[in-house]
């Protein structure tokens, strides 16, 4: 226990801070931080250094600076030989992109291997007036950037991925340079700048274009404020005066927590927060740690240092080491504090005795019997906060011992999850990977964020192992990592392997049946102008919806059409057809699709639906005369003028003849004759006749009693006799010409029978006229028609004469409301049932 607390420093009565070594730097004897500008990426990110122009140092190269990017363990990752304008500041984004801010307002982004990513401008005014300082900050949408120009105006971009420039209001007062300033992004998603102008402090808000002056209560004499820092929680602010006094108060500057004279003779290098519980003043090789309660202690380092605040502590970079300063977490403090009697501390002692096979382990367990659950949770939480694997194992063994007495009262997921997390953290903390994440930083970053960091470092192997270990989903897991590996392979394999070799190597690694998105890889190949490779890679893509758009983008329309047909998805076929129609000439288009009958049919359907193209051209290519004729007939009825319609129908007759469809040709000729006749009738009678049927045309002539024209139409169109009789019967009934109807019935025997005569008479409520034709109705239908005419007595008598009991019951069912008829029918039924009784009565 004593060894574990040897590096603890008390800060007040309750808080302890510890500093432990993360890595011994690989740049020993190569880098002197005293001569360099240093910037460290958050959450265990890489370190960027560049020569400090404000210091006189001997150089062996040209005047252009060289930016060196190191891993957190001091391994050189890349160099950027700067060829642009003057660099004002270098900063890291939350996605580990190095932002190089130039004095002309240009911002260039590089990855950790020094590869150029993108750039943007901070606006015309920043370009003209020049930039003298810049700060990055974490926003709700990513990483933001604030710059200060030579005319002392601030400009902000809240998200460097979507740079929208906004200007802060001007600082009031004398036009002199700010002595210090910082940018913050609050919980209300608003960015503000705190500016110190000598003694005066101003809060700038661009959303309201408002400036608020803040007056902190500083009792010590001072001329200006030279440094400031806002706590990670955003509730506290620390100020450093030119007299070496540190002031800590609330963010609104209304409340003072402490004021401490640091008595520093040397100018301060940095003023930062270590978590939200202490302020650290970096004086180069000395760190002063101060709490808001004015408690403090000093750390002496072996060389000049640079400190980087983290969410849960402070990274300390020196010429020889990479260390981490943090407040000792409460579970660890309760377990390892000297003389601690907390449940967790006693459980750890019990575990140690158990490892020695001592009976004292049982005594310790009895001491915490009622608090065993709390002790187990303390040990699990403390294990996550420890850096050394040996200490982690000691705490987890203690937790495991305690769990064995609880019988599943503690959630096993808590223990298993911590074991998994520590195994992952210990793996990525290795100096070769150099990702020194604490447990709290990992919780904030998440599994997907960790994978993103590993992919950026090209650590694909361990990324895949972590995906397998955590059983991550396909969207975030192995397929995504393999896709990123393949994209990297394409980008860095140019000129070394030909397209076929590269595609074979990628497919061999990824597999053809895998769930990896080959379309994403092919898209990367297109970006690298490797079209042959992209086409080859798309052969392995099993999702046609992803494959076909890229084939079309690459100009591989025939291949895209073949894949669409193979998929059997009509929507994909339509999509390819639309693209081909726009890019191909008409002849080439029709010659291409004629090889696929299903595509031809779908294109014809598409043309009919949205009239995208000419169906006639398709049918001409295929010599489909029958389809051409049908199209001509349909087009004829869209024509407004009769002459155009007749011409189209004439064409249809010829096309039917070519298709050897004689019946269709004959019917079309008849339609032409009918149109001509209807045209003459329309001008003769002065009423619309065109587009009505032959039957309706004949009925029109009969209504007008134009017997001569009617007979000519019958002969011309060879109207069958039965149809002609039907038309006459219905027409005479419609116009109420009952005399002509009777005359027609006497002309000769009706070829359609006399039932239609009865029907039309009843239809127009002429029962008297219907009675003329009832005796002529067919014998097997006579009863039905007498009932239809409501002549129930006559119908019953006919049924009785035929001795048809079933027919009598039918008549009775239809006249149930007529009591006399019902009684009469009942008597007839009785007579048929007892014929001997009726004879005796006689």
From TrEMBL:
Main location: membrane
InterPro entries listed in its UniProt record: VPS16, Vps16_C, Vps16_C_sf, Vps16_N, WD40/YVTN_repeat-like_dom_sf, WD40_repeat_dom_sf
Annotated signal sequence range: none
Function noted in UniProt: Plays a role in vesicle-mediated protein trafficking to lysosomal compartments including the endocytic membrane transport and autophagic pathways. Believed to act as a core component of the putative HOPS and CORVET endosomal tethering complexes.
UniProt topology in membrane: Peripheral membrane protein
Pfam families per UniProt: Vps16_C, Vps16_N
Keywords assigned: Endosome, Lysosome, Membrane, Protein transport, Transport
Naturally occurring in which organism (per UniProt): Daphnia magna
Keyword presence, Transport: yes
Subcellular location: Late endosome membrane; Lysosome membrane
Name recorded for this polypeptide: Vacuolar protein sorting-associated protein 16 homolog
UniProt keyword annotation of Protein transport present: yes
Every Vps16 C-terminal domain range: 516-821
Boundaries of every Vps16 N-terminal domain copy: 5-407
Lineage start: Eukaryota, Metazoa, Ecdysozoa, Arthropoda, Crustacea
Family label: Belongs to the VPS16 family.
